[in-house]
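I need you to check the entry underneath: sequence plus fold tokens. Let me know what the token row says about the fold.

>
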Amino acid sequence: MKALQLVKYGDIKDSLSFNEVTKPKAGSGDVLIEVKAAAINPIDDGIILGMLKGRLSIGLPATIGYDVSGIVVEKGDGVTSFENGDEVYARVPQEQMGTLAQYAAVKSEAISKKPENISFEAAAGLPLAGLTALQSLEAVGIKKNDKVFIQAGSGGVGSFAVQYAKAKGAYVYTTTSTGNVPWVKALGADRVIDYKTEDYKSIVKDVDIVFDTLGKEYTLDAFQLIKQGGKVVSILGPLDKEGAELFQVKDYEMPQELQDLIKSKDATYKYIWMHPDGAELGQIKTMVEEGKIKPVIDKVYPFSESVEALIHLASGRAKGKIVVQIG
């Protein structure tokens, strides 16, 4: 079968190759998916550029991609939740990375039947971004009437998080650039801040939760925005204790500046590294079918233009998800 593989770390144009590889088989507990579509994510660009070599062990050449939608064509021993012919979607586990290919073997517990009211392409754009947003906001106990600030509401994670927070009954602030303001408002955000003309730090005050999707100085700035006893959850900020344990970082100490900010606000700080979860994808399926969540797709590329899709992703200009059509 054909697969897009990382053959060396470096520039996107020079590091990838379409190769013929052995078609995988469904091992015990796996299903084999005939891939119809795969979405790409910032983690894919990070892997190609070598930015995650210290955290992820990847042998080269390696087929890339984590998000997938398609049809079950083979079941491994012990799989009872799915049948051949089922239309499914998933964020695959790290050890099964490789969805930019014609087939993918995936652990059954990472899979859900896809929402019935959307296409394979739309479904492929949901798993990683959706699980990241859901797990992050649930980790800090989002609830009705919370005031929530979400950075970068036009990105893949941000656009899902805005809709998820609204579905939970929260009041949502978010940021985006001038041209994206109307459609981010259409996602349901209560206050869309144009970061090119407005200072979000002068607008967002005393919120219950900040969802930091940008890291660096934005993580520290989040503590200016929360109320006393508020919560900051980050997917790109410094590790917390659980994150250090996850990545087996010995003798880890959170940066002192961050410790001081947490103490000064009596705040909760959580670092989230998304994990695959078929049951949570089932929750997302229901929300999509009920119209509470709508996939946001920037562009769909043919499989032959996967490299161009990754270059587009790296530009940082995508409005929602970038998807590759494979089947």
